[in-house]
Write a structure and sequence with these properties.
407 residues
């Protein structure tokens, strides 16, 4: 399906999350909503104190009372396209003796696409979009700790029909879930620890189930420390992200010009997945319940340094050094942010994002800075977030606008 492949390839560029050896589907689910956390370098797992908690860490809802709605609008990557939008709508509602219920809806509009046949002939236009809806619940375990869970339905509509002899449609509907934990007094009175695993679920298939992609299961750990005075409050937050996905494309590891052709004992076998050294060369991915554990060492143990596999950036000798533990550490994404509030009325924020493998970097490999501001008055909240970036980078000058309403 040429048009579906085109859209998927575009999404990989647009979202700009590049895990060369851990590719997942539906990576748009990793776009972070909320102008407030995004102004803080996209750090929010250890905070999660508003209606965005159903996304960032559902455990945060366990500490919240009352009702609140939240909305975010993003013109996603304006330097690259003018008709791609990200919309978020969230809600939370406290029920006495039960906990806090809530959820959110995310719409990712990919704009208008061109339909072509196998030979590239124009067949008309169509619209593509992604939709996710979540039902969330959070409850306090003690005065300091809480847990939460979100159950999500994810619908992806790339196109309504295939091309040529292809069967099926370019749509998929999947279910997944998030689990979260939050401790508001982690060893220190003003230190919070948050942890969440998001998008736990089965693989995503469009046309061919054999080519299904893993759900973008993602682990987030976050710390947040606050200092408060009579009129001032300062919060410092730090998040670290790890994509819990083990997935590889076809690779000619031994450089013999063929992928596979042997069994795991190194004997010639038609259609075999391995090379003569017993190394697997054909594409594969593991189920989420295995990848949660194997993704921590997949590059280290399962990837072989090769000049022929075409994966990774080669050094001066032509080696990619994909199979090192250093590579595992480099795949972590770091988010750091600072927020200052004056009298709970006005806030300014600053932060940065460091993602070496995803190449979300400024010139000379400096992290990408983010900025933000917020206003609160009579139950209404307005927030603005801004992501800078290297000139010409797809994420440069991304702006976020958010509205919060407490009832």
């Amino acid at each position: 399906m040429k048009q579906a492949v085109k859209v998927l390839a575009s999404m990989l560029v647009l979202i700009n999350l590049a895990w060369p050896q851990s590719e997942a589907g539906a990576i748009w689910l990793l776009i972070n909503p909320g102008a407030r956390p995004c102004g803080m370098g996209e750090a929010g797992v250890g905070i999660a104190d508003d209606a965005y908690a159903s996304y960032w860490n559902p455990a945060g809802m366990g500490f919240l009372q009352g009702r609140e709605a939240a909305m975010t609008h993003i013109n996603w990557l304006p330097n690259l396209a003018s008709d791609i939008y990200y919309e978020f709508l969230g809600y939370r509602h406290y029920l006495k003796d039960i906990g806090t219920l809530g959820g959110h809806i995310i719409l990712m509009n990919l704009g208008e696409q061109q339909r072509t046949d196998e030979w590239g002939n124009y067949l008309g236009d169509f619209n593509s979009f992604m939709l996710a809806s979540a039902a969330s619940y959070g409850t306090a375990l003690t005065r300091q700790s809480a847990i939460g869970v979100s159950v999500k339905m994810v619908h992806q509509h790339l196109t309504d029909q295939g091309a040529g002899a292809e069967k099926g449609k370019g749509t998929s509907t999947n279910f997944c879930f998030d689990v979260g934990y939050l401790n508001r007094q982690f060893f220190l009175k003003n230190l919070s620890l948050g942890a969440t695993i998001a998008n736990i679920g089965p693989k995503i298939a469009f046309i061919d189930a054999a080519q299904a992609d893993p759900m973008p299961t993602n682990l987030k750990l976050g710390l947040a420390y606050s200092l408060e005075g009579e009129y001032n409050r300062l919060t410092v937050a730090y998040d670290i992200n790890k994509l819990l996905v083990t997935s590889y494309p076809d690779r000619d590891i031994d450089g013999d010009g063929a992928v596979g052709g042997y069994n795991d004992n190194g004997h010639r076998f038609t259609g075999g997945d391995f090379n003569k050294k017993g190394q697997r060369e054909t594409a594969y991915s593991e189920e989420w319940y295995k990848a949660i554990f194997t993704s921590w060492i997949d590059d280290w143990l399962l990837t072989y340094d090769s000049k022929a596999d075409g994966i990774g950036a080669a050094d001066k000798d032509g080696n990619t050094n994909d199979g090192s533990f250093k590579r595992e550490i480099e795949k972590l994404t770091h988010n750091f942010g600072v927020e200052y509030w004056y009298s709970d009325l006005f806030a300014i924020r600053v932060g940065f994002i460091y993602d070496k493998i995803g190449k979300i970097l400024m010139k000379d490999k400096w992290p990408v800075p983010t900025f933000g501001a917020g206003l609160r008055w009579a139950g209404l909240g307005f927030d603005f977030g801004y992501t800078a970036g290297e000139a010409g980078h797809p994420r440069q000058n991304t702006m976020l606008f958010s509205l919060n309403i407490k009832f």
